[in-house]
C-alpha cells in the first residue's frame, strides 16, 4: 500500500470517492436547474401542464415548491391546490415558451470569451 502512495497512484477507495463526488455535483446541478425552472414559473405565474407517472394531467401554476413537493393549482385565491410529490411528476410543460437564460444572452460561451481575451492580449 505505501508503494502505491509513493508512485502517485490512488487506491481503489480514493478513486471511488472521487467518482461519487462527481455524481453529487451532477445531482446538485440538476437540482439547481429544477429549482430555477420552478422559481421562474412561480414568480411569473407561468401556466403549466403537469403530467404524472400514472397518466393524470393537471393544468395550473406553481404556488410553492420545496425539495420533495410542488404545490400546484389554479390562479384564483379559492382555486383548489394540490400537493404533488416530485417523484410522482413525469413532465411539466409550459403553455408558452419561456426565457430561462435571458440574462446570459449575448455573453457568448466560455470558449468564445477565452479566445477574445487571447486575441486582446496579442494586440
Uncertain residue ranges: none
Strand order of the largest sheet: 4-3-2-1-5
* % residues in beta strands: 15-25%
Overall structural domain count: 1
What's the total number of strands?
5
What is the CATH C-level name? Mainly Beta
Helix proportion of residues, in percent?
Answer: 40-55%
Q: What CATH architecture label applies?
A: Roll
Strand-and-helix sequence, N→C?
Answer: HHEEEEEH
- The CATH topology corresponds to SH3 type barrels
Give the overall silhouette: elongated
Radius of gyration, taken over Cα atoms and rounded to an integer in Å: 22 Å
Structural class assignment:
alpha+beta
Explain this structure to me?
By secondary structure, the chain is α+β, with helices and mostly antiparallel strands. The chain has one domain (2-98): SH3 type barrels, CATH 2.30.30.100. Helix content is 41%, strand content 24%. It has three helices and five strands. It has helices at residues 2-6, 12-44, 110-122, and strands at residues 48-52, 57-65, 69-73, 81-85, 89-94. A five-stranded antiparallel β-sheet has the order 4-3-2-1-5. InterPro entries: Hfq (IPR005001), LSM_dom_sf (IPR010920). GO terms for molecular function: RNA binding.
Summarize the structure in short.
With 123 residues, the chain is of the alpha+beta class. Helix content is 41%, strand content 24%.
Which structural traits does this protein have?
single chain; alpha+beta; SH3 type barrels; LSM_dom_sf; Hfq; RNA binding
Amino acid at each position: 500500500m505505501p508503494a502505491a502512495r509513493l508512485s502517485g497512484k490512488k487506491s481503489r477507495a480514493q478513486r471511488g470517492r472521487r467518482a461519487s463526488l462527481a455524481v453529487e455535483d451532477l445531482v446538485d446541478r440538476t437540482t439547481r436547474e429544477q429549482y430555477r425552472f420552478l422559481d421562474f414559473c412561480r414568480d411569473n405565474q407561468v401556466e403549466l401542464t403537469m403530467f404524472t407517472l400514472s397518466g393524470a394531467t393537471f393544468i395550473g401554476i406553481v404556488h410553492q415548491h420545496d425539495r420533495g413537493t410542488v404545490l400546484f393549482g389554479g390562479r384564483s385565491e379559492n382555486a383548489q391546490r394540490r400537493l404533488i410529490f416530485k417523484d410522482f411528476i413525469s413532465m411539466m410543460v409550459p403553455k408558452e415558451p419561456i426565457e430561462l437564460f435571458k440574462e446570459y444572452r449575448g455573453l457568448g460561451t466560455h470558449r468564445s470569451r477565452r479566445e477574445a481575451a487571447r486575441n486582446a492580449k496579442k494586440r
